[in-house]
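C-alpha cells in:
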C-alpha cells in the first residue's frame, strides 16, 4: 500500500510523543493500525505492551477488526478499548469491581428525582432538569472542579450542592459508580498508589489515542501518568472538531500538547482519501 509522506512519517515514528493532526478522510485509522503493525514487526515491540484508546465501543471495535485483518489474525494481544473500558479494567484489578457496580442511566435519573422530591423543589420540566443536573455533575467530575466554586446553570448553588452530594451518597451507599467515577477513581488510584501506577506503566509502553480533540481533563491527566516515563504517547485528532464538548471535551488540550511535550514531533495528514478533488477544493476554498 502506498502512503503519503506525512502518513509514513507518523507510521514509522519510533519513540517519544507525537501529535498527528488529521481531518476527516485523511486516513487516520489506517495510520494508527499500520503504526501498531510497524512497531510489532520492525521494532519487535510486544503486542501486549500496546494500548489503543478511542471514545466509543464501535470505534474501538472497528479499529481492532481492521488491525486484526491487517495482521492476518496474529496481533490479538494488542489492547483496544474506550477510555472507560480501559480505566474500569484497572479498577477491577484494584478494587474487584464488576459490571454490576456500574450505575444504570435509569438509576441515575431516579436518584435525582428522589432528591427533587426530598428537597421539595419546584421544577417545571422534570426530565429536562434531571438531564441538566446529571450533565453538570459529570462536568464537575470530569474537569476535577471544586464543588465549592461551581455555579450551576440549572438551579441555585446551594441546591446543586445538595443534589450533587445526595447523588454521590446514593452511589456510595449502593456500591455503585458512574462513568465519570471510573475516571476520577483511576486518577486517585494512580496518584495514591505509585506501585500500581508503575505496574500499568510497565504493561502499556506504547499508547495511541484516537479522536484526541474530544479528551477531557481527567482523561488527559490519567493518560499522561500512564505514559510515563517513556512518554511514548501517539495522539491523533482533528482540531476543527469537538463533538463531545458537552461532555467536557477540551480541544485546547490537544492544541497545547506540544507545550506539555516540547520534544513532541508533529505531522499533518493533509490528504483527504474519502472525497473527490472537487469536493476537497471547494471545502478548502
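Residues out:
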Amino acid at each position: 500500500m502506498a502512503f503519503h509522506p506525512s502518513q509514513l512519517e507518523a507510521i514509522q515514528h519510533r519513540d517519544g510523543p507525537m501529535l498527528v493532526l488529521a481531518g476527516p478522510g485523511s486516513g487516520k485509522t489506517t495510520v494508527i493500525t499500520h503504526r501498531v503493525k510497524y512497531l510489532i514487526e520492525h521494532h519487535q515491540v510486544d503486542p501486549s505492551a500496546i494500548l489503543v484508546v478511542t471514545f466509543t465501543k464501535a470505534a474501538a471495535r472497528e479499529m481492532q477488526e481492521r488491525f486484526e485483518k491487517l495482521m492476518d489474525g496474529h496481533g490479538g494481544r494488542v489492547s483496544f478499548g474506550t477510555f472507560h473500558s480501559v480505566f474500569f479494567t484497572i479498577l477491577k484489578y484494584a478494587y474487584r469491581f464488576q459490571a454490576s457496580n456500574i450505575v444504570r442511566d435509569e438509576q441515575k435519573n431516579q436518584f435525582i428525582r428522589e432528591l427533587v422530591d426530598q428537597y421539595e423543589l419546584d421544577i417545571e420540566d422534570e426530565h429536562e432538569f434531571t438531564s441538566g443536573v446529571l450533565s453538570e455533575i459529570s462536568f464537575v467530575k470530569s474537569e476535577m472542579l471544586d464543588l465549592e466554586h461551581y455555579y450551576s446553570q440549572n438551579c441555585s448553588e446551594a441546591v446543586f450542592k445538595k443534589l450533587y452530594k445526595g447523588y454521590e451518597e446514593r452511589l456510595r451507599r449502593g456500591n455503585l459508580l458512574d462513568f465519570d467515577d471510573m475516571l476520577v477513581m483511576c486518577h486517585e488510584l494512580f496518584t495514591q498508589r505509585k506501585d500500581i501506577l508503575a505496574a500499568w506503566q510497565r504493561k502499556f509502553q506504547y499508547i495511541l489515542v484516537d479522536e484526541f480533540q474530544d479528551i477531557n481533563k481527567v482523561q488527559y491527566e490519567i493518560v499522561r501518568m500512564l505514559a510515563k516515563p517513556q512518554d511514548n504517547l501517539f495522539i491523533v485528532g482533528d482540531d476543527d472538531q469537538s463533538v463531545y464538548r458537552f461532555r467536557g471535551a477540551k480541544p485546547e488540550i490537544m492544541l497545547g500538547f506540544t507545550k506539555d511535550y516540547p520534544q513532541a514531533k508533529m505531522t499533518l495528514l493533509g490528504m483527504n482519501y474519502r472525497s473527490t478533488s472537487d469536493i476537497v477544493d471547494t471545502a478548502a476554498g
